[in-house]
TrEMBL record:
Belongs to the transketolase family. DXPS subfamily. Signal peptide: none annotated. This is 1-deoxy-D-xylulose-5-phosphate synthase. It holds the Pfam family Transketolase_C. SMART domains: Transket_pyr (SM00861). Homodimer. It catalyses: D-glyceraldehyde 3-phosphate + pyruvate + H(+) = 1-deoxy-D-xylulose 5-phosphate + CO2. Its cofactor is Mg(2+); thiamine diphosphate. Catalyzes the acyloin condensation reaction between C atoms 2 and 3 of pyruvate and glyceraldehyde 3-phosphate to yield 1-deoxy-D-xylulose-5-phosphate (DXP). Pathway: Metabolic intermediate biosynthesis; 1-deoxy-D-xylulose 5-phosphate biosynthesis; 1-deoxy-D-xylulose 5-phosphate from D-glyceraldehyde 3-phosphate and pyruvate: step 1/1. Keywords: Isoprene biosynthesis, Magnesium, Metal-binding, Thiamine biosynthesis, Thiamine pyrophosphate, Transferase.
Length: 629
């Protein structure tokens, strides 16, 4: 029986001797490899955080002490050690455990997460609350990666912590990677302090002194704290960013030396106030391929754990491309013709496929770090100087930048093209990552063009049209995953802005859709033929400006209307159609299909579409109900 078999909760872990933690870390790593190779999820980050996870749960009294993971994609080890080992095979599956920490799943998940750079702010809230309640023995720890630290919120959090004197430990898990290689001046700074010899010598001396005196009792501790502080204020404050903003900085230390981590964390427990422990780790630690190519192994899909070969469900038949690749190739094609085009991504060059243009035109592409707000305003600045920025942000992460969209772009009518990838239900990442809201949040912004293609050709045409539109911002949203067309690379055309199209004629019921669910509508219509039911189908294509002629045609010819969208029915297409009817005195029965007014969990996209009732079967069912009503 291995050590991991004996552990259900951190109380079991605490029974081990320190040297046994090395073996436990190895077993935990093997467990993660076993599970994630068969049931895919985030891989490299969790492997890199194994020793940190073991040490944190060994030293701290979780869940009383609050342990907050940033992003949460590295928290598989944490889940396994906190009561979810036996359910880990359900990770990210419908009805199973979430791939991210989730407060409703476990009391050990102190803060729900999925989006980056929130941990320090949340930790500060908890630490201040502990202070106000006089819970002086409570420790609050935020574990944040070097990538997440590039996010504005992380900096806002550090800035605030530095004047609160709250009892917080920030563990900086520095592996020099985001999903792709980490970027930016701050990343360079971290590398500098990790490798600066004079600085490290000084810091080691202070650390050694502090360690020795910590064992001498409170009076000596106070003395050394004074000495330590005066040395620091003289020398270190000027040379260390974290010290300069009132953190006590420790490290860099080896984030894979679990015994040393435990010793250091035990020492840090006795030091009050804001502290930052800089740990150097390797993303993908312990799995050769993942160490060698961390970007590819961030979330690799199924693989053979013995050979390290990825297992593709590829039956050899040609497949339609991923929408992200249609975006990537099309942008490069447009940029070759139009020298004003530039590409912007906040830390998702591979996920968005902007890396296709990056390879050929590195000086016209910008990975700005995990900084969606900055990405939008940076694009606004570029547009103000007659560049044509294509700012590609996942729909869910764009939520961060709403004020920038409104205040910096739309209000000034700046022609930024927003490409919102992962619009709609994304699948296994779940509630934190579904692009449920963009249609609704973009539709309410004046001057904004809001569009969604039904297939790859339409995406290309919308991108082509958007590059020439200079009156204001233009948003194009498309889903995660593959499109519909094998032969997708056709010449591009200008589309009339604000004009939809009739996809198929019909009677009795009109279905109005936007974006890719139009294909579910077509499938439903094909199936309904055998039952002699023939709904008409309209693809609205633009949610703003909406095609009023098309809606007039619909309302003048149909009393029964179904709207279909891969987005929240509150504020999206369904709402727009109801508003139009109310404002223009049309009376009709309108049924809205889309994401209902609640957060949708994780699962396969097909399962989630079905759950929400807008897959082809759900549409058929609604048509039949409405026809027979
Ligand atoms: C607001 C936001 N933008 C983008 C992402 C996508 N994302 C998830 S993990 C990640 C990289 C995080 O890097 P780091 O914090 O260093 O963690 P590592 O994977 O290196 O352990 C990114 C960009 C996100 N989760 N949230
Ligand atoms: C943790 C995180 O936010 C990313 O890793 C995200 O899961 C990427 O999603 P895609 O797989 O859709 O690129
Ligand atoms: Mg990192």
């Amino acid at each position: 029986m291995g050590l991991l078999d004996q552990i259900e909760y951190p109380t079991d872990l605490k029974k081990l001797d320190k040297p046994q933690l090395i073996q436990l870390a190895d077993e935990l790593r093997e467990f993660i490899i076993d599970e994630v190779s068969a049931n895919p999820g985030h891989f490299g980050a969790s492997l890199g955080a194994v020793e940190l996870t073991v040490a944190l749960h060994y030293v701290y009294n979780t869940p009383y002490d609050r342990l907050i993971w940033d992003v949460g994609h590295q928290a598989y080890g944490h889940k396994i050690l906190t009561g979810r080992k036996n359910r880990f095979h359900t990770n990210r599956k419908l009805g199973g455990i979430s791939g991210f920490p989730n407060r409703s799943e476990s009391e050990y998940d102190a803060f729900g997460v999925g989006h980056s750079s929130t941990s320090i702010s949340a930790a500060l809230g908890m630490a201040v609350s502990a202070q106000l309640r006089k819970e002086d023995d409570r420790h609050v720890i935020a574990v944040i990666g070097d990538g997440a630290l590039t996010g504005g919120m992380a900096m806002e959090g550090l800035n605030n912590v530095g004047v609160q004197n709250a009892n917080i430990l920030v563990v900086l898990n520095d592996n020099d990677m985001a999903i792709d290689p980490n970027v930016g001046a701050f990343k360079e700074y971290l590398t500098d302090i990790a490798t600066s010899r004079p600085y490290n010598k000084l810091k080691d001396e202070v650390w050694n002194m502090l360690g020795k005196f910590n064992r001498l009792g409170p009076t000596a501790q106070r003395l050394i704290q004074k000495v330590d502080n005066s040395i620091k204020s003289l020398l270190m404050k000027q040379s260390n960013f974290f010290e300069a903003i009132n953190f006590r900085y420790f490290g860099p230390i080896d984030g894979h030396d679990v015994v040393h981590l435990v010793n250091v964390m035990n020492d840090l427990k006795d030091i009050p106030g804001p502290k930052l422990l800089h740990c150097i780790t390797k993303k993908g630690k312990g799995f050769k391929q993942a160490e060698l190519n961390a970007a590819e192994w961030h979330a690799p899909g199924k693989f053979d754990k013995n050979t390290g070969l990825k297992i593709k469900d590829d039956d050899g038949t040609p497949k339609p491309p991923k929408y992200q690749d249609v975006f990537g190739h099309t942008l490069l094609e447009l940029a070759r013709q139009n020298k004003e085009i530039v590409g912007i991504t906040p830390a998702m060059p591979a996920g968005s496929s902007l890396n296709i243009m990056m390879k050929e035109m590195p000086d016209r592409c910008f990975d700005v770090g995990i900084a969606e707000q900055h990405a939008v305003t940076f694009s606004a600045g570029l547009a103000a100087e007659q560049k044509t920025p294509f700012c590609n942000i996942y729909s869910t992460f764009m939520q961060r930048a709403y004020d920038q969209i409104v205040h910096d772009v739309a209000l000034q009518k700046l022609p930024v093209v927003f490409c919102l990838d992962r619009g709609g239900l994304v699948g296994e990442d779940g509630a934190t990552h579904h692009g449920a809201f963009d249609l609704a949040y973009m539709r309410s912004v004046p001057n904004m063009i809001v569009s969604a293609p039904m297939n790859e050709t339409e995406l290309r045409n919308l991108m082509y049209t958007a590059q020439n539109y200079k009156e204001g911002p233009f948003s194009i949203r498309y889903p995660r995953g593959r499109g519909m067309l094998i032969d997708w690379k056709q010449p591009m055309n200008d589309l009339p802005i604000g004009q939809g199209r009739k996809v198929s004629d019909g009677e009795e019921v009109a279905i109005v859709s936007i974006g890719h669910p139009g294909n579910f509508v077509q499938q439903a219509i094909n199936h309904l033929k055998s039952e002699k039911i023939t709904p008409a189908h309209y693809d609205i294509r633009f949610l703003r400006p909406i095609d009023e002629d098309l809606l007039e045609e619909v309302f003048n010819n149909f009393q029964k209307i179904i709207t279909v969208e891969d987005g929240t029915i509150i504020g999206g297409l369904g709402s727009a159609v109801i508003e139009y009817a109310a404002e223009h005195g049309h009376r009709a029965q309108i049924v809205r299909l889309g994401i209902p007014d609640k957060f949708i969990e994780h699962g396969k996209p097909a399962e989630l579409y079905r759950m929400c009732g807008f897959d082809s079967e759900g549409i058929m069912k609604t048509v039949k109900e409405i026809v027979s009503a």
